[in-house]
Write a structure and sequence with these properties.
This protein is α+β, with helices and mostly antiparallel strands and about 300 residues long. It contains three helices and 18 strands.
């Protein structure tokens, strides 16, 4: 009798779950969904091509403790592109603080105001100092215990070179519902980056379970505000798609469901510039399935 009651309970739960899933379709208007993805793709390209998009990166230079001269002359410690002045000044790294000293006659501004000397705030703190000299702009990045200059050229040829991002055809079958299997408490996951010796750490709340093409799959998400950030690889990685994986975001919808939309799987910054630093997919996020959705590899000069 006890076994029979148990079977009835399990059957009832199964029916309830099936009814819940089947009564609330993820996509109710396919045409509208297709248009929304096309608009997302347009906005994605616009962001990449903007002045502060990843296509404008033109250098990443690491500072040494003490004085670091910089400018376009090859005698400098840090050599900027030719459009910079021969000697722009020095950056002084002193136990984690960076001070800029501008050479005489050089115009460098912060928020449209010329400066001669200034303590700089790096990108791990609020109010990051952003410097401007003609078409060039830069700021200090902190990676682990290292400090460097991330340099942008607002007229980099790469910006005009990219006129579209290759992508798979939009397919609603790659929009799936996932369930979160939470850990007893969030875990810290440390992942590699292309920067030798540098890793990044993220909070992982649990495991996402979902199905694609009938196959059960899992991903380890990273907490990002009210949603999740995912760094994934699959059977297309290094072939049709970027070898360093792709990124995704997932936000619970109005009913609390976690929706994974692989049509929005996108290339990380490192796919567009050698001067970016990106988390690489943890081994837990290598999917044994060809995810033929989202962005494909981009080939730039």
């Amino acid at each position: 009798m006890r076994n029979f009651s148990f079977l009835i309970l399990i059957s009832s739960l199964f029916v309830l779950l099936f009814a819940c899933n089947s009564s609330t379709p993820i996509i109710t208007d396919e045409a509208a969904y297709m248009e929304s993805i096309k608009e997302w793709q347009v906005q994605r390209l616009e962001r990449l091509k903007s002045k502060n998009g990843w296509l404008s990166l033109t250098g990443l230079f690491w500072l040494e403790e003490g004085e670091n001269s910089y400018g376009s002359d090859s005698e400098n410690d840090i050599v900027f592109p030719e459009k910079a002045d021969a000697f722009c000044g020095t950056l002084v790294l002193d136990s984690g603080s960076v001070t800029l000293r501008v050479a005489e006659g050089i115009d460098i501004s912060v928020k449209d105001s010329l400066i001669t000397e200034m303590a700089l705030i790096d990108d791990h703190s609020e109010g990051t100092t952003r410097l401007q000299q003609g078409d060039l702009a830069w700021y200090i990045v902190k990676r682990g215990d290292r400090y460097g200059i991330r340099l942008r050229d607002h007229k980099h040829p790469r910006i005009d070179e990219l006129d579209h991002i290759p992508s798979y055809a939009i397919q609603t079958s790659y929009v799936v519902e996932a369930t979160l299997e939470p850990f007893d408490s969030p875990r810290t996951m440390t992942v590699a980056t292309p920067l030798e010796g540098f890793t990044e750490s993220y909070e992982c709340p649990g495991i996402l379970n979902f199905r694609i093409n009938g196959k059960k799959l899992t991903l380890h998400p990273f907490t990002s505000g009210a949603g999740y950030f995912l760094v994934i690889a699959d059977e297309t990685s290094g072939l049709d798609t970027y070898g360093g994986g792709r990124f995704m975001y997932a936000m619970p919808d109005s009913s609390g469901r976690i929706i994974l939309d692989f049509n929005k799987a996108y290339n990380p910054p490192c796919a567009f510039s050698p001067f970016a630093t990106c988390p690489m997919p943890p081994r837990e996020n290598f999917l044994p399935e060809a995810i033929e959705a989202g962005e494909k590899s981009v080939h730039l000069e």
